[in-house]
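Lab manual, section 2.4: Encoding a predicted structure.

Procedure: take the sequence of the chain (549 residues), apply the prediction step described in section 2.3, and record the output as structure tokens. A sample record is shown.
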Amino acid sequence: MATKVEKKRTSRAEQKALLALSPFELKDKLISLATESVQASAAQMLNAGRGNPNWICTTPREAFGTLLTFAIGESRRTIQIPDAGLMPTKDGIADRFADFLHANPDAPGAKLLRAAVAYGVGALQFDADTFVHELAEGIIGCMYPVPSRMLVCTERIVHEYLAREMCDGKPPPGRFDIFAVEGGTAAMCYIFDSLMLNHLLRRGDTIALGVPTFTPYIEIPHFDRYAFKVVTIDASLERRADGTHSWQYTDAEIDKLADKRIKAFFLVNPSNPPSYAMRASSMRRLVGIVKKKRPDLIVITDDVYGTFVPGFRSLMAELPQNTIGVYSYSKHFGCTGWRLGVVAIHEKNIFDAMIAKLPVKERAALDRRYSSITLKPSKLKFIDRMVADSRQVALNHTAGLSLPQQIQMALFSLFALLDTENSYKTLAQLVVRRRFKALFDGLGLPPPIDELRASYYVGLDVMAWAEHTHGPDFARFLRDNYECTDILFRLAEQSGVVLMPGGGFGGPEWSVRVSLANLPEDTYPKIGELLRNAAQAYVEEWSASRKSK
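Recorded output:
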């Protein structure tokens, strides 16, 4: 007879100590507990902790493979040495590519490649040989990135993609300069560094942070290098009639940005973990404050989840002069391992103007910093300073995202631009929305209807549910007897379910984050049911404690 394994409970003291960790490090502890739980039972571990999607966009990857085959053939065209080739030559390469695709009509991704060249030459007015040569040379990766910031044709393609997806097809006048980077995380590092190096932010400055938000945005400002004073713009204050959060900023929270002591506003939009886009009225209020009272406010918006909200419009479209836009391809296309991201800054921006107005000594020091890469350092754009800063300036000539990565980014962008029916985008949105409904089916609750919801994550506030459903006495019982992460430990230890603590993202302490990206749809009703049962267990304990008195 099998011996029943007694499941060990993590003590309240240990839970409290673990609260000092980043939620991503706490998650590792929960995974360890969940692994032990499923090994001792027939349960399946359900890790809804990370935001890595479990789907991928296949056609642009197929096109990458076929393009690589063509490019290698080009390298061998004039040389007959085993295992070796030469760089592709530009003259006539577009015709040779057309012949290659004609001879291989059913090659994976060939249809996209034919359409991509036609789009580049027709809609974007590229020279055919120049465009195809950039694709071929880039995919082989035989050259340094030139220009360092981004390949010329690729930048234009990505610009069109951002105009469509981040600006709802209605971009502001002018153009954005784009820096291709190693995912959104690299973008964060480069932005923080260059803002400081160019004296646009200084150690000890006051910044505003839209919360809840991606944890590193909370942690980085407190590093000794920055020591920023942080004002939170909190989206957890407004409640719906059923007691749940709307996850929108109130007018009073937006109005905090009128304070001239605040130098910059960092936000993730749509938010993480609530997964809601900023509503139009809040955006209009923010735009009004900037235009009337805070024309000097720096806005940094991370819009990685924007494609999951129909009709999404970023602050980079509404406040182009003030905004540094960050976008990562990781979530929409299922390519976190590719590390594909961009920083976008409008050609007419406050950053260049602010640098030009710095004190003489600071401008002189900056001129010396960048003097090795340009004869006119005072004219160097902020975004190009960011490129140089990413390689300590001295290595500016080797800066930039690897060329194969840039070509895959271009192919993802072209795939989306040529998908005029938005078939893939609609499918990706449907995937997470179905999982959202499945989770709420398991919770036994009607899913809130909100067109601003990205549905990539769900933020569930246990304490808000406790207060609304069972009243203040029950809420007090929870606070007096348990740490806010107790439900996470219960789920991991008893059911093998891993969720993330919402409090670690700057959200309500008793909230949890459920990722709807990384598990099959049929697992979410089970997660909802187990979460509901864990919450009900608290109610039963509370009821028993009242009877015993």
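Check your result against the sample. Residues 1-6 have pLDDT under 50 and may be disordered.
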